[in-house]
Amino acid sequence: MPLLEGRRGLIFGVANRRSIAWAIAQALAAEGAELAFTFQGERLEQGVRELAATVGSPLVVPADVTSDADLDRVFEAVDQTWGGLDILIHSVAFAPPQTFEQPFVATTRDDFKLALDISAYSLIALTHRAATLMDRAGGGAVLTMTFNASQRTYPNYNIMAVAKAALEAEVRYLAFELGSRGIRVNAISAGPVRTLAARSITGFTVMEEHTEKNAPLRRNITAEDVGNAAKYLCSPLAQNVTGQILLVDAGYSILGMSL
Ligand code: NAD
User: Taking burial as the number of CB atoms within 10 A of a residue's CB, which of 98, 234, 239, 243 is the most buried?
Assistant: First the structure.
């Protein structure tokens, strides 16, 4: 029997077919999950609707994660459609483009607030709303996406690294608090994958080349690798796994020194 038969998942973060959220969606759908999607802004609507239709999605709704009103509308629509929820995927991040170019020490208060609001606070806002619906399902799985720049310095990643450090701490606090309700909260820390968001990071192709040359497995990961890890973390196979950051990075993060 498929691992996720009868499970209902809500996915934030599909921009196009290259999005990590879309690879996760395909992996979950292949295991029998039914999926709802959000999209950010009219520009992305048509593309997300077309992708969602290929996995038979019953619900596609707009949402800007900085808007509480938008989020309330999304979860109300999920409630009306399913009356409960089993899986929440948070695959959303943004920092103003200049923050990847200017010195980290020059980060402005406004850029800090925006990056942390969209990339870190949003996990709390979504999980809070999802938990009420997961209670009706007797528990659930929340999954977010992070990057190892939260732990070590990477050139140009700057304020997004701070946002990822906050996000990873949130994973632990949410897992701690929601565990007694049967809700698990985990993150996947992925190596570089060429997506829309990744292209805005100055020197992204250098990161890819560096990984291929130095990672223990001598290759870059793919979005499908992340989808496979997500399938595990959202399924009963991971029923006693919570508060964890799973590295899917061809082993790059274990290096102390590269040659
Ligand atoms: P992507 O551009 O396909 O996805 C980013 C998504 O964030 C988009 O769907 C975008 O619409 C959404 N978003 C941004 N601001 C938003 C807002 N205000 N409201 C709602 N949605 C908003 O890129 P991706 O690489 O698939 O990124 C997904 C996640 O994976 C991010 O958290 C990213 O940091 C993380 N990640 C990516 C890589 C990589 O190399 N691509 C590596 C590690 C972690």
Answer: 234
